[in-house]
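TICKET: design request
STATUS: open
ATTACHED STRUCTURE:
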């Protein structure tokens, strides 16, 4: 990526590398500091922020998904935070269909847009051409869902056997992803991973220059940050939030780290639940990093990287 000259004129930052608008995509594992960096970048560019987190988009979920604090949301305009209901869940493709008009509008009016989130598939669906996969088969889907309810480990083992490449990076506790992968394998006769290229050229949906970065903390540091965040979420009232949402626990969106632990272990004390959430969050972060390692186009950023490093990389 060519260096970008940054100058200040009348309190506005101008990027003089190209005349096209710019999309600034910030990836990174959970608890890596994406929100703070996105806000700082948005302020510097006088741009707005689009959330690309598959759980923060839901109105009903707050503490357990580490939704940005009120003061953070007030410091830069955000789209896609608490904008949808878990009663009408999104997929990566439906998120992309919702977000694309918004992205075009922001690029036309502002010239820049910061997109931030840890949901890599949502980002790819938004920014890149997606593969044509077999349509859902209602009967097969119903059969797989019934098998998941009876014995989820059986489906996980089947996916690991039939498509170890996808299983190595997927959230295997997420019923929707496991079931969809097995459905595609059954309908196509091919591994799911072989059909999910989603590579590597921008779609042409946006007439903009794309810059992609990933915050990349050292694992020991990330583990400490995750543990601290989990403790803070408990102090903020995560147990009460989870109990309030318990009637919805069977919805797909509730199969989320930070909530499912309360439902799986209703009699455990806060310390045990906190440690469970931290362990599962760390496992999820490792899967996010595994996915990011395979995205050669994304520039890695050490924790604490400055805005200047992003603008000049």
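STATUS: resolved
RESOLUTION: sequence designed for all positions
ATTACHED SEQUENCE:
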């Amino acid at each position: 990526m060519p260096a970008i000259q940054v100058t200040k004129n009348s309190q506005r930052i101008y990027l003089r590398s190209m005349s096209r608008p710019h999309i600034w995509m910030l990836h990174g594992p959970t608890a890596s500091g994406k929100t703070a960096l996105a806000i700082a970048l948005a302020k510097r560019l006088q741009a707005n922020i689009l959330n690309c987190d598959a759980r923060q988009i839901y109105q009903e979920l707050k503490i357990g998904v580490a939704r940005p604090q009120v003061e953070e949301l007030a410091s830069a305009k955000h789209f896609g935070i608490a904008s949808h209901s878990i009663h009408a869940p999104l997929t990566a493709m439906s998120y992309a269909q919702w977000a694309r008009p918004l992205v075009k509008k922001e690029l036309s009016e502002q010239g820049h847009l910061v997109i931030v989130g840890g949901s890599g598939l949502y980002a790819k669906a938004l920014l890149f051409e997606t593969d044509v996969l077999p349509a859902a088969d209602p009967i097969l889907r119903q059969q797989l869902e019934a098998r998941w309810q009876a014995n989820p480990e059986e489906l996980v083992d089947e996916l690991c056997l039939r498509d170890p490449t996808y299983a190595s990076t997927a959230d295997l506790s997420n019923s929707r992803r496991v079931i969809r992968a097995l459905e595609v394998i059954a309908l196509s006769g091919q591994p799911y991973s072989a059909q999910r290229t989603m590579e590597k050229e921008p779609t042409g949906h946006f007439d903009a220059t794309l810059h992609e970065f990933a915050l990349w903390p050292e694992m020991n540091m990330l583990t400490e940050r995750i543990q601290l965040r989990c403790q803070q979420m408990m102090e903020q009232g995560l147990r009460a939030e989870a109990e309030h949402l318990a009637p919805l626990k069977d919805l797909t969106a509730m199969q989320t780290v930070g909530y499912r632990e309360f439902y799986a272990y209703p009699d455990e004390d806060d310390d045990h639940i906190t440690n469970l959430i931290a362990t599962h969050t760390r496992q999820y972060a490792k899967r996010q990093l595994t996915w990011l390692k395979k995205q050669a186009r994304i520039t890695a950023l050490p924790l604490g990287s400055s805005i200047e490093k992003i603008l000049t990389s």
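CLOSING REMARK: Residues 13 and 45 are 6 Å apart (CA to CA). The mean pLDDT is 88.
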